[in-house]
Specification:
single chain, about 160 residues, alpha+beta, 4 helices
Length: about 160
């Protein structure tokens, strides 16, 4: 698991799902090998600084508030905003400074819990339990496969 940002190019593929957070500079936790519908995929799970207070604790992993966290909101890793990614479009996010080092340490120390909670969310999602404002994982997986196929075709053309 690592902290990454997702390329603008890949995020643009998901523009039709308005629940995908489109800020390409947003840090995400990259989790490799979560199972969804019998297949393993890589997912990015965004860090959000203003998760509303009514959001159930099962939908996010709490982190210490940021300076941008509004009163009555929470900062955390928001599971319902996860989306599938291709590793080639995930770039290392620089976690330096006291606050970011604390957050990174908290994430590292709770890696198994975060992965387990993300997998539980995906299993529930697969079984039809889809909260309001969640990403459409089936649609996003289809878009990702189309994107990868078009990239592979482009690559074949340039190598021939």
């Amino acid at each position: 698991m690592r902290i990454v940002t997702i390329s603008e190019e890949l995020l643009n593929v998901y523009y039709e799902d308005d629940q995908v957070l489109q800020k390409h500079t947003r840090p995400c936790v990259l989790i490799v090998r979560l199972k969804y519908k019998g297949e393993f995929h890589t997912f990015a799970v965004p860090l959000r600084s203003n998760i509303p207070s009514f959001v159930p604790k099962s939908q996010f992993f709490a982190l210490p508030p940021r300076s941008t966290t509004k009163p009555g909101h929470r900062h955390g890793i928001h599971y319902i905003k996860m989306f599938p990614v291709d590793d080639r479009y995930a770039y290392r996010f620089n976690m330096s400074g006291k606050y970011q080092t604390t957050v990174k340490s908290l994430i590292d120390n709770n890696e198994s819990k975060i992965v387990s909670e993300c997998q539980a969310y995906l299993t529930a999602y697969e079984n039809g339990l889809r909260p309001n404002y969640c990403t459409d994982i089936d649609f996003l997986l289809a878009r990702l496969k189309e994107f990868q196929a078009s990239r592979d075709k482009e690559k074949e053309k340039t190598t021939v």
